[in-house]
Design goal:
With about 220 residues, this protein is an alpha/beta fold. The chain is built from six helices and ten strands, in the order βαββαβαβααβββββα. The structure holds zinc ion.
Length: about 220
């Protein structure tokens, strides 16, 4: 498994357009490196396919950056998406807005998310419903605790992380909104764990529990 960090900044990027903190001003002064918004890509080395974890508003720039490093060569000559699948860890605007920028794909986008996130992106912030009339979308469910086989080599399992709904959802219902992902390479046993901190509080506890169970698995 190959892992590329596409971006590491919080929502808004670094610098953020309306921010004048010391950090953002340092970038504007040329003394620090700008960062695009957080996202990673994972490649199954066996069959070469790439998977995108969250689609940031900076996706266009991020795709071009890794294309420049020699990724996606097998896809030259067609206009389909260079990702075999896109996995969403939540329905936040800074993790999903990039999807709309992928609308020119000539093949439907293969999107994985929880049903709550699908619902939010269909009727709340209707990116998925909009995309149906452009690239089209093939959606597949992510259910915490259930393993999804992405390729012969890569599998992914979600764990519950947060009940914090995106701001555009006006609901008082307590539901699972944020998940973390454990991505496992079954040939090398390399494991990565992808998660975002939507808020500091409950997630810390859930995250600690997950680490504990992960270490137990390793020992076993
Ligand atoms: Zn700032």
């Amino acid at each position: 498994m190959l892992i590329r960090i596409l971006g590491a900044a919080a929502g808004g990027g670094y610098p953020q357009w309306n921010c004048h903190c010391n950090g953002c001003e340092t970038v504007r002064d040329g003394a620090a490196t700008p960062l695009t918004q957080s996202s990673i890509a994972v490649q199954s080395e066996e069959d070469g396919s790439w998977f995108l974890i969250n689609a940031s508003p900076d996706i266009r720039q991020q795709i071009e950056a890794i294309r420049g490093e020699g990724c996606f060569n097998s896809h030259s000559g067609n206009r389909s998406l260079p990702f075999a699948g896109i996995l969403l860890t939540d329905a936040e605007i800074d993790h999903t807005t990039g999807l709309i920028l992928l609308r020119e794909s000539t093949a439907p986008l293969n999107i994985y998310s929880t049903t709550t996130v699908k619902q939010a992106l269909t009727s709340g912030y209707g990116i998925l419903s909009t995309l149906q009339n452009y690239s089209g979308v093939n959606w597949a469910p992510i259910t915490p605790g259930e393993i999804i086989q992405l390729t012969d080599e890569l599998e992914v399992e979600a764990f519950a992380l947060s009940t914090k709904a995106p701001k555009y959802i006006q609901s008082t219902e307590v539901e699972l909104w944020g998940i973390g992902l454990t991505i496992r390479d079954t040939t090398t046993n390399l494991i990565i764990i992808k998660y975002s901190y939507p808020s500091i509080n409950k997630p810390v506890k859930i995250w600690s529990l997950h680490i504990a169970s992960f270490l137990t698995q390793l020992k076993g």
